[in-house]
Amino acid sequence: MNITPTPVDENGWQKQLDRFVENHHPQLAALAWGVHLEGESEPGTLGIDLKPTPHFVFCPKSAIELLNKNADNKLQEILGIIDGYKPEIEVLMICISPDRIKLIYFQPELPPPDYYAKIDKDKKFLMSELEQAMRELIKLPENL
Predict the structure, then answer these.
(1) What is this structure's pTM?
(2) For 59-72, how does the pLDDT look when each residue is reduced to its tens digit (9 = 90+)?
(3) Which of 43, 49, 65, 134 is the most buried (most CB within 10 A)?
(4) How confident is the model at residue 9 (pLDDT cuts 50, 70, 90)?
(5) Are the CB atoms for 112 and 89 separated by under 8 Å?
(6) What are the residue boundaries of the Chaperone protein CcmS domain, all occurrences included (predicted)?
(7) What is the SS3 assignment for 121?
(8) How are strands ordered across the β-sheet holding 44-49?
(9) Can you spell out the DSSP letters for 52-75?
(10) Could you tell me whether strands 101-106 and 91-96 are parallel, antiparallel, or unpaired per DSSP bridges?
(11) CB of 109 closer than 8 Å to CB of 24
């Protein structure tokens, strides 16, 4: 059996997202910590929904568990990462596109609480700035 890997589109949304994350580590770390401080009524993680334009959403763990069940447990690893997530030292977000899910997971140079204090912007303002930056950088093909 000959399996040919899918070519990587250097200009595709996944590469654009990777560049966005690379260029905004401190702000994303600060935002993740700000969201963590506010806490939600249910455990979960911050997400980026790419449709209709890139924006942040909260992804409750129960919704991810349901999606995992509907996807024949193909998201089990993501659930394990969410369970082990340490918001005081790492950043975890889930990017949702119409055809796939991409995990954003990294340990920034400084701990997220330090970036939150250093950047000194409230969560809503920071979120708005980052959403604008995403809209400028991440372009989905019209057929998605």
Answers:
(1) 0.86
(2) 888 999 998 898 88
(3) 134
(4) low
(5) yes
(6) 9-137
(7) coil
(8) 55-60, 44-49, 91-96, 101-106
(9) SS-EEEEEEHHHHHHHHHHTTTTT
(10) antiparallel
(11) no
The greatest distance separating any two alpha carbons of the chain, rounded to the nearest whole angstrom, comes to: 55
CA 19-131-59 angle, 5° bins: 95
The residue whose two tokens read 């995992």 is 68
Helical spans, DSSP H, in 1-122: 13-23, 25-38, 61-70, 76-84, 112-119
* Cα-based torsion angle of the residue sequence 93, 140, 52, 68 in order, rounded to the nearest 10 degrees: -40
Unique residue bearing structure tokens 């950088």: 137
Alpha carbon distance 79, 110 (integer Å): 25
For tokens 């372009």, the residue is 139
